[in-house]
């Protein structure tokens, strides 16, 4: 559990990450009013002590802060600009923290629209995956005005342990995209090492252990390496969501004329994985691309 916190939070988006983050806010001492387009997600959180909301506006009602944790840019835009959205129905504290991974350009646009209505927006994407969300150990990288960040910080501390203010609105997303670029290429590197180790007849469990003790160690090798070796593809961070992030990385890079050849290559491999029906599998399913390239008859996706 994260640090103690108090206050009222409107929480919108109760999926893999949002459900755990909202639960940590409740456990920290906050009153959480929760909304999702899936009724069962609201019911699940209500069973943990949240108040059930009927719309984003209803979730934000009386809140010190509204927090969104949604799949992609269009869903965040809908929750901000939609009929029952937060621009027309701001939280009482006039503070919104979007913790999804979305377009930095869209963040700047939304932050400006909200600012014109006297509402502060902080973009605060996270790293650490479902485990970090569950254990309240997320790394949170926030963009926004200094005062808005200071007001949001106690709520972030209930969900994470590494909390940084990295600049103006959109800067949090820019840092997160750098993070995702490293994650994607690192996952690919692990796939390649395991494919080569397998072909060399090396014991793969031992390979992973040895690598974790040296300079090739990484969070991804630790958390996803074993699943690759075991052929376990269950979702955590889905292939589809990583593809969305790699698309955002490439959009940002193209708009700034920064060539990213490594990202381009790994994006093609993620597309190959999705074309083979693995979009809803976890990122470790990228290894199936290497199964196919080495004619190792991968198991059917699922
Ligand atoms: P998810 O798909 O599991 O959850 C998203 C939730 O939003 C779902 O419950 C969905 O029903 C709800 N939703 C969709 N549209 C909505 C709307 N208009 N109004 C209200 N609710 C709506 O996704 P997730 O894995 O929790 O990820 C959320 C965000 O966090 C994404 O941007 C993702 O890239 C990012 N992220 C995910 C991970 C991870 O490991 N899963 C890690 C870091 C960051």
Overall structural domain count: 2
Largest sheet: 6 strands, parallel
Q: CATH class of the largest domain, please?
A: Alpha Beta
- Classify the helix fraction into a percent range: 40-55%
In CATH terms, what is the architecture of the largest domain?
Answer: 3-Layer(aba) Sandwich
The CATH topology of the largest domain is: Rossmann fold
What do these coordinates show?
The chain is of the alpha/beta class. The chain folds into 2 domains: 8-169, Rossmann fold; 175-293, N-(1-d-carboxylethyl)-l-norvaline Dehydrogenase, domain 2. It has helices spanning 16-28, 39-46, 56-60, 73-81, 104-116, 129-135, 146-157, 171-199, 204-212, 219-230, 239-255, 261-275, 287-293, and strands at 8-12, 31-35, 51-52, 65-68, 95-98, 120-123, 126-127, 138-143, 160-167. It has a 6-stranded parallel β-sheet, sandwiched between helices. A 3-stranded mixed β-sheet has the order 7-8-9. β4, α4 and β5 (95-98) form a beta-alpha-beta unit. Bound molecules: nicotinamide-adenine-dinucleotide. Residues 12-18, 35-38, 41, 69-71, 75, 78-79, 100-101, 126, 129-130, 236-237, 241, 245 line the site of nicotinamide-adenine-dinucleotide.
